[in-house]
Write a structure and sequence with these properties.
Length: 402
């Protein structure tokens, strides 16, 4: 046990908090830090959780905390590289941040919390499959009896799914859920694997069966509901799909909470199938809510969903404003170029200049993973591209026989 704690790194600083943190429910109030180090660890986890939103404000707030942390002269050795890695992250030095995290893992290879840090950094920068290299190094040091082993399997399942190893991802996700049924990230990873494999009825049944284990999870339940709505829609169960959407939209923490990404993604799928005015009021609301935050994110994936809401409400000026204000600050160059092309493609699509939109989207297609999000979420761009291809396909007139 002593040897295991030595390799666990920051996970060993306060074991009681690790499970609730990786359950993504928020840290329970009854878990109060006992030592100064535990209090520091808790604030670090809360700050990390906030910056994964890619919001500039959250990055700056966490930077202020890290600066105060830097002034301490007695940081535990387990936190030294972690602290430097997060400073690099909030300074938009993503490669340096990743290098520092992986250096920490060389010293503490069974530190599953830090594996999660690297995973979320990769996810936010559009490089999710990259973590497979760290798995090969860390896994021999993580016993099946590790308290966080189920969560490790869940992280690995999602990464492998994004690397298109769908069957292995499914098996790992199911095993994670078997070990800890309320492991929300295991449920989430399993849903993604079934989605990628097109096993829609199985996905729907899985999420319905384990609903008691995810419906109370404030951090992930809206996204899991999105998976359920998609599964029903792909099974042509229209009423169930719309009901799932209504239920997910009612779960927002507040009317102004920034939780509209999945709502836009689902409604855009329906919009590409039919110009139904049933959701016009919701589209107007979504577009209005996005207007205040189009420049406050380092994620093009968020910017693109805002642009889709503006497109659905024919507000081309707002898309033009997005393009004008997107200068690439805090975003890696390749992702910036691809993101700009997609925004311009959505603008041209809204203006019904389909051939020009098609050219831009096709050109940037290979770079879409850098925009962030998951493969399942980025399907909204593939579906848009398919729609435009149909719009630009030459019409072949049927001629009567001579």
């Amino acid at each position: 046990m002593v040897a295991q704690w030595k390799t666990d790194g920051i996970s060993a600083l306060w074991p009681e908090i690790n499970g609730p943190f990786l359950s993504l429910r928020g840290i329970p109030e009854h878990l109060m830090p006992v030592t100064e180090t535990q209090e520091l660890y808790k604030d670090l986890l809360l700050g990390f959780d906030a910056i994964t939103s890619c919001e500039m404000k959250e990055l700056y707030k966490f930077k202020l905390f890290l600066n105060r942390m830097h002034q301490r002269s007695n940081l535990p050795p387990e936190l030294l590289l972690i602290h430097k890695a997060f400073i690099a992250w909030v300074n938009f030095e993503y490669e340096r941040a990743r290098t520092l995290f992986t250096q920490h893992l060389k010293a503490y290879p069974s530190d599953i919390i830090t594996i999660f840090f690297v995973h979320m950094l990769d996810f936010c920068t559009g490089k999710t499959p990259r973590l497979t290299a760290e798995f090969s190094f860390c896994e021999p040091h993580i016993p099946h009896t590790h308290a966080l082993y189920s969560y490790y399997l869940a992280i690995k399942s999602f990464v492998l799914c994004e690397d298109q190893c769908f069957q292995e991802a499914l098996e790992l996700g199911l095993e994670a859920v078997r070990l800890i049924p309320h492991n929300i990230y295991g449920i989430h990873a399993t849903a993604h694997a079934l989605h990628e494999m097109g096993r829609w009825q199985e996905l729907s049944s899985f999420l319905i069966d384990c609903k008691p284990d995810w419906i109370e999870n404030s951090g992930m339940r809206m996204h899991v509901y999105w998976h359920m709505a998609i599964a029903h829609e792909r099974c042509n169960e229209v009423e169930q799909a719309l009901q799932a959407f209504e239920e997910l939209y009612e779960l927002k923490d507040s009317p102004f909470a920034k939780q509209d990404l999945d709502a836009v993604g689902f409604l855009w799928r329906l919009r590409l199938k039919a110009t139904d005015s049933k959701f016009n009021a919701i589209w107007e609301r979504l577009a209005l809510l996005w207007t205040g935050s189009v420049s406050g994110s380092t994620s093009y994936f968020h910017k693109i969903h805002a642009a889709l809401a503006f497109s659905a409400t024919s507000q081309t000026l707002l898309i033009e404003k997005q393009i004008a204000e997107s200068d690439g600050f805090g975003i890696e160059p390749e992702a910036h170029r691809a993101g700009l092309d997609v925004l311009k493609g959505i603008l041209l699509f809204t203006l019904k200049r389909y051939h020009e939109s098609l050219a831009l989207l096709r050109t940037s297609r290979d770079q879409w993973p850098l925009l962030g999000g998951s493969r399942a979420q980025r399907e909204v761009l593939d579906l848009t591209l398919e729609y435009i291809e149909l719009k630009t396909r030459p019409i072949v007139e049927e001629r009567a026989p001579a």
